[in-house]
Amino acid sequence: MHTSLRLVLLALLTLGPRVASAQAPSRPTSAEVLPDSLLQSSLRVFLDCQGNVRGCDRLFFVQEMGYVNWVRDRFDSDVHLLLTSLNAGNGGREITVNFLGQKRFAGKTDTLVVNTLPNDADDRVRRELLRTFQLGLAPYVARTPIASRMRLSLANGAVAPTVSPRSIKDRWNLWLYRIDGNLNASGEQLVKTTNLSTSLSAARTTDAWKINLTGTHSYNERDFKLLVANDANPAIRDTVSVVVLQRASNTNALIGRTINAHLTAGVKVSAGFSEVLNQKLAVRMSPALEYNYFPWSEATRHQLTALYYVGPNYYRYYRRTVFDETEETRFNQTLLLALTQRQKWGNTNLTLEGSHYLHDPQRNHVTLSGSMDLRLGRGFSLNFRGSASRVRDQIYIAGAAQSERDILTQRQQLQTNFRYNLNVGMGYTFGSIYNTVVNQRFGNLGELGRRFGFQGG
């Protein structure tokens, strides 16, 4: 893209709102609805964040740039938006945004760069990325039919619409499927570990419905070689193999129906088994209601939700429990309160969850968890991570005493009255904020050389 064109587009993005406000004294009470024929021809964009690019919040970009169609596969896109990130000399990150044209835009490319400071809030980073996307995609949008309805947003002061699923011809009918498989093996002379996990999921999301179906299976094997004295000759050591297996499988279904801008109703159903939890079969069904104090259209900025669900649970156990049960059906209810915020000063996530079985309210579970990332001043950051739980609902614990081997290898869940974890971090960065030079020399020193790593690159 020529420098002059970039300056013109930047001026439009910066001054456009003032011009629009001068021409239109007040915003319309309702946004203009574009015809499906026009929305079908909107620019298709694939967002590709290589690695863990900070601020790459797809949902936020979808809501803020509704005049483009964000697709899930690069082969369906008109523009492949490729983001990569490197350490900068000032301790921040240099995010390179590549605009790669495809199909009718094949051969048309551009590159823009975003520089961040080490303690920039996530909200500031994603808004800077949003501004960069708007700038870089403008030449592509200008070559689509929707360009005739746009200045900075839409003509006549109307807001840009979000591309509606009804305007897109989709042979999959909005269903998204995913299959995953993972194998991890590690070992030493006396210890070998093998972990295998598989999952299958299907999901369909519309404004009115949310359907999630998942199935998972895990297989964990640990093989310990123990050296023990020979009974006949204590000077000789025999090798004894101890194998610990932990297997689990679960299927889940979640169906939610939008009631209004704040309220959602649905049902959760699950079935599976877990050797660690002594559950040979566990089946649960829970109707649920969720209320968000803020409209869901503002979900990328803040959420204050209350989720309630209640229903029956059927358990069949491998071993008789501490309550002398081999199988049982119990009803329980759960209330979950959650607050999520992403602001310029940082991020906040707090959750309070409580549940109990209806047949015995003393069999309950209360958990308070959360995280806070605060930007308290220039270069100064403070973060908290933690949770605390009061546990009184382990009705699945086996009644028979566990062996020393089972306890040490954590083959089965141990009885406990509480759980907690806490992490506190603080950081202060000072010095030059202008050094955006990227130098990746000595960037890979191997496992033993990581002690020489430094945030500044």
What are the main properties of this structure?
457 residues; mainly beta; Rossmann fold; Porin; 2 domains; 12-stranded antiparallel β-sheet; 5-stranded mixed β-sheet; 5 helices; 48% strand
Describe the protein in words.
By secondary structure, the protein is mainly beta. It has two domains: 3-167, 3-Layer(aba) Sandwich (Rossmann fold), CATH 3.40.50; 188-428, Porin (Beta Barrel), CATH 2.40.160. 13% of the residues lie in helices and 48% in strands. The chain has five helices and 17 strands. The protein has helices spanning 3-23, 36-39, 58-64, 122-141, 404-409; strands at 44-49, 69-71, 79-87, 93-101, 109-116, 175-187, 191-205, 209-229, 237-258, 263-274, 279-292, 302-317, 327-343, 346-357, 360-377, 380-391, 418-428. Strands 6-7-8-9-10-11-12-13-14-15-16-17 form a twelve-stranded antiparallel sheet, covered by helices on one side. A five-stranded mixed sheet has the order 2-1-3-4-5, covered by helices on one side. Helix 1 packs across helix 4 (122-141). It is globular and about 85 Å long. Mean pLDDT is 81; it is low at 1-30.
